[in-house]
Every structure is written in C-alpha cells, then in structure tokens.
Amino acid sequence: MLIIKNIGSLQKKLDKLRKNNNKISLVPTMGSLHEGHLSLVKKAKRGGRIVVVSIFINPTQFGSNEDFNKYPKNTNKDIRLLKELSVDILFLPNENEILTHKTSQLKQARLTIEKILCGKSRPNYFPGVGKIIIKLFDIIKPNYAYFGEKDYQQYYFIKLLSNKLKFNTKIISGMTIRDAHGLALSSRNLYLNNKEKMIAQNIIKILRKSKRELSKKWKPLLIINKNKNLLIQKGVSKIDYFELRSETFKKDVKKNEKARLFIAVFIGSTRLIDNIKVN
Ligand code: AMP
User: Where are the alpha helices (DSSP H) in 47-113?
Assistant: First the structure.
C-alpha cells in the first residue's frame, strides 16, 4: 500500500494508473477505522479497481461546540487494517494543503437537504462535508466513490452534489454495519462508557419497534412520539430528531412509499445517528 500525503504526488501516481486503463475507487473516511469503514473498503476492492482510501478529520464539518478536538485518531492501526485489505493507496492529506487547495472553480451547490435533520441541527455539517468531498473528487477524479448507509443523509447529499456539479463519479452505498447488539458502528461509540453503551442499544430497538408498528398501523407521528418518550425513559439524554422521511426526504410519506426512519440522539454529550429502511 502506498501512503501518499501530498496532492501533487497523488495526482502523478493516479495519472500514471489511469494511462494504463485503470479505474479508480475512492473511500473517504475520517479514520479510526472500524468494520463499517472496512466493509466499504472490501466492497470497493470487490469492484476490482484501484482503491484509494482517504483519512482526513475534516475540521470544516464540525460546529464550534462539537467534538473536533477530541475526535479519535488511530492512524497506525488504520494503516495496518488497510494494508490487510490490500488497499492500493492511502491518502493522508496535510490539513493546510487540502484546506487551501483550490478546486477547479467549483462552487458548492446549496441543496434542500442541508436545512433538515442533521443539516438543521449541524449547520456546518453539509457545507463542510461538501467542501472536502469536492476537493477529493477534484483531486482524485474517482470513477466510483463509496459511502455508508449509516450516514444515509450524507450519501444522498453527495449523490445530489455530484450530479449537480457533473462529476464523473458513480456514488455507491454500503449497508450499515452493526455490533452484536445492533448498535451501528461509529467512531463516536468510543466516547461511550459501559452504561451509555447499554442505553445506546435502545436506538436500534426503538427503530425496529417503530417499523413493526408502522407495518401494522400507518400513524407515523403517533408512533414516533410514543417511541421518543420510550427512548427518554430508557436513559437517552435528548432526542435531536426522530422522523420518517421518504428516501428522497419528503416529509409526507404515504404507506408503501419507499421511506426511512431517521434518528439522532444524545447519550450524555455524545451525539449518535442511525436510520433504517421502512418500506
Ligand atoms: P466517517 O469516518 O465517519 O466519515 O465515515 C466514513 C465512511 O464510512 C462514511 O461513508 C460512513 O457512512 C461510513 N460508515 C461509518 N460507519 C459505518 C457503519 N457502521 N456501517 C457502514 N458504513 C459506515
């Protein structure tokens, strides 16, 4: 596995690979890799193309009161895990170089999804993600890029963004990977103590319970409100949002329409998100 930190060296290497008819797959991450990230890398490897993984803790997607300064960093372990999966290139950009790197005059499009759910409670999130993904796509020009359904809003946002800005990159999703108790793997799970981990297991339980109830009786607001209360009784500190949305994020969802339940909660000071498919 080549470890490249410099944008120019990466582009030189990729140009050479492309000249030999290689296609490029990109898996962008913020590191502290777990099986969720690795499942995307494995999926990318199965595609049979050159796989580039990037690790960059993107400061621009965090709010000033959020966890940028304590976000976990385990680069040596990440390198070992990626080598084991025979990743071709690990891109570890230098913060200053990537933040000041000018893209080919691409302006970020403003998209409706930036105003709802995570976009509403974390106003820096989508603009910050967009800023760095545009740079990575512009630098790497991947033919394929992989994103997890765990962050379904991000996956959808990048699909829209990529279309709008006419990138030649196919956006592929990977299913959410969970631990034995159903808790969606997340680098932020490292913040949880044992008691908080037990509380966090209720997120998927309540999502699945809501889904079962919806399949019997299509009363989304009623069911969600009841289950919000249940989550608080189970020890969740605060519910940021818990909503049913169509897969294109429409609010009014008809029975049998493709939809997902989206949730963000605080357990202590840790904010966790999850979602499941309903129809
Ligand atoms: P992050 O490092 O949190 O920015 O995540 C990098 C990529 O891994 C994103 O596309 C995430 O959606 C994906 N990812 C994170 N956790 C999971 C998970 N539990 N299952 C599947 N994909 C995940």
Answer: 75-84, 95-100
Segment 108-135, tens digit of pLDDT? 888 999 999 999 999 999 999 999 999 9
**What single-letter DSSP state applies at residue 178?**
B
Residue entry with tokens 């008819």: 21
Q: What is the 8-class DSSP label of residue 175?
A: P
Which amino acid is present at 5? Answer: K
Nearest of 54, 64, 68 to residue 97 by alpha carbon:
54
Cβ neighbours of 217 (radius 10 Å): 10
Q: What is the largest CA-CA distance in the chain?
A: 59
Token pair for 223: 């069911």
Please give the single-letter amino acid code of residue 275: N
Burial (Cβ within 10 Å: 0-12, 13-18, ≥19) of residue 8: exposed
Q: How far is the CA of 237 from the centre of ligand 1 (A)?
A: 24
Q: What is the mean pLDDT of residues 232-241?
A: 98
Q: Could you give the CA distance from residue 194 to residue 152 in angstroms, rounded to a whole number? A: 27
What is this structure's pTM?
Answer: 0.97
Question: Separation of 204 CA from ligand 1 center, angstroms?
Answer: 17
Is 93 touching ligand 1 by the criterion CB < 6 Å?
no
Q: Which residues of 105-121 are buried (b: 16+ CB within 10 A; e: fewer)?
A: ebebeebebbebbbbee
Distances (CA, A) of 203 to 1, 50, 83, 97, 181: 37, 36, 33, 39, 10
Nearest ligand 1 atom to the CA of 176 is 20
How much distance in Å is there from the Cα of 46 to the middle of ligand 1? Answer: 18
The percent of residues above 70 in pLDDT, for the chain, comes to 100
